Amino acid sequence: MALSANDAFAAGGGSRRRRRYGRGRRGALSEINVTPLVDVMLVLLIIFMISAPLLTVGVPVELPKTEAGAMEDQSEPLTVSIRTDGSIFVQDKAVAFADLSPRLLAMADQRTEKPIYVRADGRAAYSVVAQVMASLSVSGFKSINLITDTGGPSSGKSEPKPREQPAP
Q1: By C-alpha distance, which of 151, 74, 63, 167 is closest to 114?
Q2: Of all residues in the chain, what percent are helix, strand and coil, respectively (each to 5)?
Q3: Nearest-CA neighbor of 146 among 110, 113, 111, 122?
Q4: Vertex 64 angle, CA 121 and 130, to 5°
């Protein structure tokens, strides 16, 4: 069987023309480039870290500090805030003391097992805070929680500081 000149080159038998594999063509890239993915994730992480403290909706009050630990967050709790001047807010809307219980009962959908969080300013009058908590208790709410800041004074676990003697 005789081969023509064209068949010899096509079969790869010719020494003049050789195909060079790897230079002219590139194989399919089978790996995913994760560098852009990591860049986007780091940017999103930074954005969420900066914006998370700004997401607390409510009335600005200065909470008293205690050594109690933080509670786990729940979805949309009922919050009653009391400012220094004695004004009362449900979520972020001002409410008169007489309208406090009806408003909370309407928001709780007749399920009084839902916890209520009371955020009172540390300088608010104790009588106002006590009246609000009593009103909530009489209305049938069983889970009333006081919100405080962490990092406050100890409950007596550490040794007291020595008192300085006045100079004579």
Answers
A1: 74
A2: 30, 15, 55
A3: 122
A4: 55
For residue range 24-33, what is the model confidence (pLDDT) as tens digits?
Answer: 566 776 888 8
What would the pLDDT profile of 48-99 be if each residue is shown by its tens digit? 998 887 776 666 777 777 776 665 555 567 888 999 898 999 888 888 988 8
CA 96-97-100 angle, to 5 degrees, is 90
- Placement of tokens 């008192």 in the chain: 163
Rounded Cα gap, residues 116 and 119, in angstroms: 10
Between CA 120 and CA 126 the distance in angstroms is: 9
Least Cα distance to 145 among 96, 98, 91, 77 occurs for 77
User: Letter for the amino acid at 155?
Assistant: S
Q: What is the three-class DSSP state of 46?
A: helix
Tokens of 27: 């194989």
Expressed in angstroms, the distance from the first to the final Cα of the chain is 127
Task: Single out the residue of 87, 88, 139 nearest to residue 114, CA to CA.
Answer: 139
Q: Judge if pTM exceeds 0.85.
A: no
